[in-house]
Amino acid sequence: MTISPLQQARVVGVHATAQAKQLDRTALSACLEAAMGALADAGLTPADVDGIAGRWPGPGGTVMHPGSVDWTSLLGHPLRWVQDTYPQGVPAVLDAAAAIAAGLCHTVLVVGGQAAIRSGGAVAAYTRPDNEFVAPWGAFTAVHFAMVAQRQLHLHPDYRQGAAEAAAAVRNRGHANPDAVMFGKGPHTAEDVLGAPMIASPLTLLDLCLATEGAAAMVITSADRAADTRAPVRVLGGASEWHRQQYVDPARHEEVWTVGRDAAADARRMAGVDPTDVDVALLYDINSFEILRQLEVAGLCPPGEAPAYVHDVGIGEGSPVPVNPDGGLLSYSHIGWGGPTLKVVEAVHQLRGEAGERQVTDAEVALVTGAGSGAQYHNTLLLGA
Questions:
Q1: What SS3 state is found at 368?
Q2: Which of 41, 190, 353, 359 makes an SS bond possible with 164, Cβ 3.0 to 4.6 Å?
Q3: Where are the alpha helices (DSSP H) in the chain?
Q4: 5-119+213-226 classified as CATH 3.40.47.10
Q5: For the FAD-binding PCMH-type domain, which residue ranges apply (predicted)?
Q6: Is 220 helix (H, G, I), strand (E, B) or coil?
Q7: At the topology level of CATH, where does 127-210+236-384 sit?
Q8: DSSP string spanning 15-63?
């Protein structure tokens, strides 16, 4: 196996603020808390940071998003590297690892989050982008995924029950997690999911992720510098697959149902692991059908068998590969630009053995994913204890 330069990187600090439906604070204050918390977790200070990937939440600064360079003012010194293309989650980790391997920087802070997102209407404003082919028809994020799910359901009707069982399993993990926005709001059954109010057919309210407030951050550095930190987690491998710009042209099932499969295979080859080596999966559960799709894309079960896998093997507590022990985007939290980073935060907690009541026993390899079919891109990251 050829050793990838990305494997020189380590995730050395993570932090998530309190997550809530609404926070009585600004997005900037939440992001600052997350950033300082991640640095403290790593035993570092802002002076140690020479790279940034963090959408500027305002106020002030540039109006040309993402605007990561605006963070230099708060960090108090110039930076050597800035990631301004997709400053969150898996892509931010992979780009930071590549920049560190190339010698462009040595320590990268990734931060994102949101607050005060409610602006009237039933859905958050950021789920209704003013994009070509979207704004004229009033479409919102869930609709793009619903079109893909509807076609899958037409071809394979058993995915409706399987998706409901998957949603219930993940939501019940959030029901038991005191840090989750939906703590104590369950337990749920598949019948609850199927009977919930319809939002975008076939997706009901309980099939869909949250739109909440809070922030998350992580710190990535080189293996040499990580040796002096508290509990580094290894970057084993990762890859991305981009089909088309998100939420512009409608997603077509035959083009996107398997998006990310090649990226998952590339990540496994880079890491030198098989799907059977994965101990815990932090899947990007923007809706229940995506859980099924990503189980197949990641190789955790064969194509077409996700409903049977969820029913017979299970994805909840005690399953061979627990999925989203924190409750995921469905029940823990989804904070916009910080949402994908929450997946890495939970993976690090699991690999360090510090996840408390939701800890997966002897977790050594964690799978993290981002985005999905309706967004028309998908990314995969493998982390090791």
A1: strand
A2: 190
A3: 27-42, 71-75, 89-101, 141-155, 159-175, 190-195, 223-226, 253-256, 261-271, 288-297, 306-312, 339-352
A4: yes
A5: 198-385
A6: strand
A7: Peroxisomal Thiolase; Chain A, domain 1 (3.40.47)
A8: EE---BSS-SS-HHHHHHHHHHHHHHHHT--GGG--EEE-----SSS-S
Q: 51-55, 142-146, 151-155, 326-330: which has the minimum mean pLDDT? A: 142-146
- Checking if the pLDDT of 45 tops 90, the result is yes
Among candidate residues 310, 304, 358, 300, the one with its CA nearest the CA of residue 164? 310
Q: Is the pLDDT of residue 71 over 60?
A: yes
Q: Is 170 exposed, middle or buried (0-12, 13-18, 19+ CB in 10 A)?
A: buried
Which tops the pLDDT comparison, 7 or 121?
7
| Gap between the Cα atoms of 86 and 112, Å rounded | 11
In the chain, domain spans: 5-119+213-226, 127-210+236-384
Task: Give this prediction's pTM.
Answer: 0.95
Tokens of 113: 């989050």
Confidence check: pLDDT of 1 > 60: no
CA angle 306, 196, 119 (to 5 degrees): 105
Determine how β-strand 51-53 pairs with β-strand 81-82: parallel
Tokens representing 294?
A: 């990503």
pLDDT (0 to 100) of residue 119: 60
Helix (H, G, I), strand (E, B) or coil at 147: helix
